[in-house]
Design a protein that fits this description.
Structural class: mainly alpha
Number of helices: 4
Number of domains: 1
Distance between the termini: 26 Å
Helix content: over 70%
Order of helices and strands: HHHH
Length: 156
């Protein structure tokens, strides 16, 4: 029974890191971008990258270790009950959006921000990327909310 609690703890800790970081990062990035001061925006972009490496990625890893470890201890399969399968599908979908849409946007924004100097202002390209980032970031949270609901309700 000790392993079960260990894996559950890791799973919950991972979810807290992942969900907390993606929520807080989005909020303060929007406020930094709206501020318009290139130094604040530049600093915000650095923090987006830093928190992805320091909180989002560890959150994903802990969520997976804890989740799959719990499955192993309890003797569940990866596909039954059905809520487990759909939870994994939704988690992967959110991850694909993050990896193939959000991260490339963040990289482009970071490069633009790193080129700014005292005379610069936020470019139309940067603002357009910010709108895409927040839109796709919100879209990527939908599957994560579905996962959370499936994990709690276990409906299928």
């Amino acid at each position: 029974m000790g392993w079960l609690y260990t894996f559950k703890f890791l799973h919950y800790l991972g979810i807290i890191l992942l969900a907390g970081n993606i929520t807080v990062t989005a909020v303060w990035k929007v406020f930094a971008d709206r501020n318009g001061d290139w130094r604040i925006v530049q600093f915000g972009q650095k923090l987006v990258t830093g928190t992805d490496f320091g909180l989002t990625i560890p959150g994903i890893i802990l969520t997976m270790i804890g989740g799959y470890g719990t499955l192993w201890v309890l003797g569940y399969s990866l596909v039954e009950p059905a809520w487990l399968l759909w939870s994994q599908v939704m988690f992967v979908l959110a991850g694909l959006i993050w990896l193939f849409i959000l991260v490339p946007i963040q990289i482009r924004q970071a490069r633009l921000a790193n080129e700014w100097t005292e005379q610069d202002h936020l470019t139309d390209e940067y603002r357009s990327l910010s709108r895409r980032w927040i839109t796709w970031g919100l879209i990527s949270t939908i599957p994560l909310c579905v996962v959370l609901w499936l994990m709690v309700a276990k409906p299928l």
